[in-house]
Specification:
3 domains; single chain; 8-stranded antiparallel beta sheet; 432 residues; mainly beta; Immunoglobulin-like
Length: 432
């Protein structure tokens, strides 16, 4: 038991059962920048448990470089966490600034390891600003020994060729009997890959019931999230019991996974081995209606900043990558607004093809988990992002088509874009 004054009243309880959650995203060790957060002025009371997203975290045990964790001089433990559960120990907290791993006066906090394997901390204010506690280390048992590291820097490569979504056959691989420990990064050959986010048909990926993510990957770097893994068998996209794994997006744009064994055989994790090869030149169409003719262009961008388009030619991206698409109208002033009415993918160059895979309908994303409308109807450009996929698993050319309106915001009258133009041609092929 530990007794503290809480709002002036003595409060006695086991801190492993009664703690305050500290889950500020900016405390993550993976985030850098000129943050000015300061923990000196916080009224610390009682015990705290660290989280990153839904995942338990802890204060790192290594010197963290300056200008990380949302502050200038990050706070870290200069001594290791206790390994015995139930014991409260004192630990020294240091800070990093100006080339020194303990530039400003250090201080002591209390730390307890709980029976669930997590830690709680009796935090106190540092001596000055700007100093703040870091969070984000991940710890696992590796051959019985606790091992703590950022999973973006310390992972096991999983590059089995048979895991490829492009391979079919009567495979009988099973991941149930593998002793999964720690974090894994997917590769196909030399190319970074990831677990697909769509139902993969049976008898693929070297197994009978392929495992895939039933929820999208996180889009924010540095945050660990939990995701549901499903399987495909007998016409059912989640035939056997599903399970949870942890996923983290790393600053390099790749993903790492804390994999666990499925409940039965034969089930195995799939790895997206196909690549998107997309022609990134700006495709142009025309806007018809009252007044002079305007031109419209659609471009593929490198990042969600929408500041840099891909150069002309083919660009190779992993399947399930985020496509950042911008549509702009030229030769029109700021009183006009572009509206994305409908966007869809098709295997046909013609937008009149009956086979369509809708992304945006009636100005809204069809599946908000896969498509985000970022800007629409506010200026002479519109923007959206989509996690791209192989429609029906077909390795064929794919085209994006969009139906637009151009609105004169002074008159509230709109002009419809002709549907006869295709904007982006995307060619999909397996990796080599």
């Amino acid at each position: 038991m530990d007794c503290i004054l809480h709002n002036g009243t003595p409060h006695c309880v086991d801190p492993c059962d009664d703690y305050t959650v500290l889950n500020d995203e900016w405390r993550s060790t993976s985030l850098s920048g000129n943050g000015v957060r300061c923990d000196r002025d916080i009224n610390w009371q009682g015990w705290y448990r660290m989280f990153q997203g839904q995942t338990s975290a802890r204060i790192p045990e290594r010197c963290i470089g300056p200008n990380r964790c949302g502050t200038q001089a990050p706070l870290y433990l200069a001594e290791p966490h206790p390994t015995q559960s139930g014991v409260i120990v004192n630990r020294t907290v240091c800070n990093s600034w100006d080339g020194s791993c303990c530039k400003f006066p250090n201080h002591q906090i209390q730390v307890k390891r709980c029976s669930g394997g997590f830690y709680v901390y009796k935090l106190v204010a540092p001596s000055t600003c700007n100093l703040a506690y870091c969070s984000g280390m991940d710890c696992i048992l590796h051959h019985g020994t606790p091992h703590c590291a950022d999973p973006c820097d310390d992972y096991t490569v999983l590059n089995d060729e048979w895991r490829s979504t492009s391979l079919s056959g009567n495979g009988v691989r099973c991941d149930r009997d593998i002793n999964w420990q720690g974090w894994y990064r997917m590769f196909q050959g030399q190319t970074s890959a990831r677990i697909p986010e769509r139902c993969i048909g049976p008898n693929r990926c070297g197994t009978q019931a392929p495992l895939y993510l039933a929820e999208p990957h996180p889009t924010q770097s540095g945050v660990i999230v939990s995701r549901t893994v499903c399987n495909s068998w007998d016409g059912n996209c989640c035939k056997f019991p599903n399970h949870q794994i942890q996923v983290k997006r790393c600053s390099g744009g790749f993903y790492v996974y804390k994999l666990v064994a499925p409940s039965t055989c034969n089930l195995a994790y799939c790895s997206g081995n196909a690549l998107i090869k997309t022609s990134s030149h700006r495709e142009k169409g025309g806007i018809s209606g009252l007044g002079s003719r305007a031109s419209v262009a659609m471009s593929l961008y490198r990042s969600p900043a929408f500041s840099d388009t891909y150069p002309p030619g083919l660009v190779t991206l992993p399947v399930d990558s985020a496509l950042y698409v911008g549509v702009s109208v030229e030769n029109r002033g700021p009183d006009f607004a572009v509206i994305l009415e409908d966007c869809f993918a098709s295997h046909s160059l013609s937008p009149q093809s009956p086979e369509k895979y809708p992304l945006i309908q009636n100005r809204c994303p069809v599946d908000p988990r896969q498509v985000e409308v970022i800007e629409n109807g506010r200026s002479t450009r519109a923007r959206f992002s989509a996690l791209f996929f192989l429609p029906n698993g077909k390795h064929e050319d794919v085209y994006l088509h969009c139906n637009l309106t151009l609105c004169d915001m002074r008159k509230y009258s709109c002009f419809t874009v002709s549907l006869k133009f295709h904007f982006i041609s995307i060619r999909i092929c397996p990796s080599v």
